[in-house]
Write a structure and sequence with these properties.
Two copies of one chain form a homodimer.
Chain A lengths: L1 E5 L4 H10 L11 E6 L13 E5 L7 H5 L6 E4 L5 H6 L1 H21 L6 E7 L22 H18 L4 E7 L1 E2 L12 H11 L4 E3 L6 E5 L1 H13 L10 E3 L3 E4 H12 L1 H4 L2 E3 L3 H7 L9 H5 L8 H12 L6 H4 L1
Parallel strand pairs in A: 1-2, 1-4, 2-3, 4-5, 5-6, 6-10, 7-9, 8-12
Antiparallel strand pairs in A: 9-11
Chain lengths: 329, 329
């Protein structure tokens, strides 16, 4: 089996490649993995399959055709301009997130006898307030951002191209990923990871919202599990509804901090500095808080047990299972 | 006020123009109406405002810019390739219904200090089964056709362009229009009108589905009322949710026939010939049957009272209020 990963240099793309290297990741031997991103992906050494890396603008004419030359059976489409960028650069957001995806789907459609499994990572940004207490699988897409609109439009294309049998798409709407490894980033959701990651590394973290703020989270490990499951499930039962709300953990910031305290002690929790930001609070307050992902659960997508499990996943994957409690005491 | 009607040669476009000619149709004097369609619209004589007619492909480069030269304050965007055509001609459907609309919105965005009211006619085709017993305003768009996907994508664009204040959009999702005047057309929904229209004109009508089939209907008069109301409502309360399910009448085919019998007698009803078609029955059976259009009603969109009223509207508007009961007795 040949696999193509678009957006392979990002955090999810790199973790996906790591996971594909484990035995039986997809239940089928992997012959080759093609990696594409704006910057050339640098796969780790020792992978059990050959890789080829490509760099550039995937939305440029001809690029999709080149990436499909070997007809990869599975395509993970993780590439996008992020939310804040799409909001600031209106034309570029539509060009990359919408037109780039459409060019990919058109390139797929143009190849005879080719119907790859396409796994697309969508986002909670397809939703907008007001919300019910728990968002079910029939809730409308009413995005509050250009990014969300672009994701929702691509979802519709995937449903139509799948219905017409041009490709075999599965859209997974990922919860906010937590705990993201690395450093804080420009995303407004960055603090959901920061308030756990920084204290576990003995660093101060800024919390810009109130403790009662609730959100929908999943670990990177759960997210990779969703990607692999989406690549292998039987899509016959999906019909025209190719978009699935992924399982997550609904947790308040206060509950996150309690989990941190339980795991690493009061000293760790004390590293969180509350610095309320009304602008961030207003935006984060418009995000969904809780889902009932009945379809995804029924299809076997399995998420994190609770926030303690999410925290331990970070410690396992990024800190080799050990936290220097001395430092955080 | 200057008005642009895209798709002006169609049944809705022509009736809209007639209605605009009545006093106080929009509450503001009308200075000019621009009419565009694939074939040149031929406005009736005696209109109380000047018109200019344009013909051609509205999705061709430069056309939208030309139509916006005089900066119409209200744009009625009724233009589209119909459902069956969009399904048969995949590329052409996306080019006209999606790309044409996007080019129009981009042309609007490119004009400084210009933010027209844009009224877009969407469709029940944005929905797909399975449905709840009554579809509420939060129900997802899961189209079962390329046409529905294109409509849903344009809806998302209008929401985003409105949120960014590039235009001021109102999307009205019209029920199936009944009773359509004229002759049967290729639409699968044609019989909903045909079983009333043909008998009232002394002609036989074919009914390809069972009497128990239920659907969501509105008269042409109600639809024009929705268009005018959408052109004038205060959009401040709409937020990012610019798409509104329009009021309609939920009625079974059997109830339609009963209304015909009440109005025109058993002889009229006897002109309906039952000729079940499993293919048509299956497709029509996948259409929505009933809505709870709470938002639209709250915004003052007012529909038909019942199916008897829909039938009388046809008789009033198309038969000058008289049916030759001799002929249908």
């Amino acid at each position: 089996m040949k696999i193509l990963i678009l957006g392979a240099a990002g955090m999810i793309g790199r973790k996906l490649l790591d996971r594909l290297a484990l035995p039986h990741a997809l239940g089928t031997p992997i012959d080759e993995v093609l990696l594409h991103d704006l910057v050339e992906p640098a796969p780790p050494a020792g992978l059990p399959f050959p890789t080829r890396s490509f760099s550039g603008d995937y939305a440029a004419p001809g690029v999709a055709e080149r990436l499909l030359e070997t007809r990869p059976e599975v395509i993970f489409h993780l590439a996008s301009i992020v939310s804040g960028d799409a909001e600031a650069r209106f034309e570029e957001g539509y060009r990359v997130n919408l037109d780039g995806s459409r060019m990919l789907f058109e390139a797929i459609r143009s190849l005879p006898d080719y119907r790859p499994r396409l796994v697309y990572t969508s986002s909670l940004a397809v939703f907008g307030p007001p919300y019910p207490a728990e968002i079910d699988d029939d809730f409308l897409c009413a995005p509050a951002s250009s990014y969300g609109v672009q994701k929702a439009m691509v979802e519709l294309l995937i449903a139509d191209y799948s219905r017409k049998s041009f490709l075999d798409g599965v859209v997974i709407r990922l919860p906010t990923i937590c705990v993201r490894p690395g450093r804080p980033n420009a995303a407004l959701s960055s603090f959901f990871s920061g308030i756990i990651r920084e204290p576990l590394n003995g660093l101060e973290a800024i919390l810009p919202v109130e403790d009662k703020v609730r959100h929908w989270l999943a670990s990177p490990r759960a997210a990779i599990g969703y990607l692999l499951h989406a690549a292998t499930i039987d899509t016959a039962s999906l019909g025209a509804r190719r978009s699935l709300n992924m399982p997550g953990v609904s947790v308040t910031v206060g509950e996150q901090i309690e989990a941190l305290r339980r795991f690493a002690g009061a000293g760790a929790a004390a590293l969180i500095r509350r610095q309320p930001d009304p602008v961030i609070s207003a935006i984060v307050g418009s995000w969904p808080q809780r889902f009932a992902p009945v379809r995804a659960l029924g299809l076997g997508f399995a998420g994190d047990a609770d926030f303690d499990a999410i925290l331990r996943t970070y410690v396992d994957e990024e800190l080799n299972g050990r936290v220097d409690l001395q430092r955080t005491a």
